[in-house]
User: Fold this.
Amino acid sequence: MSNPEQQPPVPEPVEDDERPERDPERVHAAVAELVAFLRAGASAGSQRLDLTARMVADVVETELYESLGDGSTGPAAVDEPRLSELLGELREADYDPDEDGAWFSLRLYVRPDGPEDEWWQAVDHFREPSWRVPPPDAKYGEDLKRFPREYSELPDWLSAKAPDA
Assistant:
């Protein structure tokens, strides 16, 4: 499990005409790379991996648990910097300024021995993440500069945290 930490600097905002459009194949490739990474690190006898992630700007919080064949569940070991990098790549690939913007939280279930293209994923673009350690409100403004949204797509809580964005 990670503590919310400052990750490598967030890239400068991209002008709309420079930003690639959301490409479902790019999103699928990013998820597949994340799934392969998680599977490679699974313990012997692992039956399921359960990843929860929260992201805003350069702040990332994750929890990764694995369920073992004996019915026990516990935290799974993972290369945190690489996990954060892969999540950032997925969030970037999945961003769509014309739809919901960037997601703030993700849930991913993976069977370590399952078929290559089998996983379950859900993302949330609208609810405030349930942080263990909430980031400073300024991070939401940074995030909106990196991932702008239409005004109609701004939840009230996000507008309150980033009134100048």
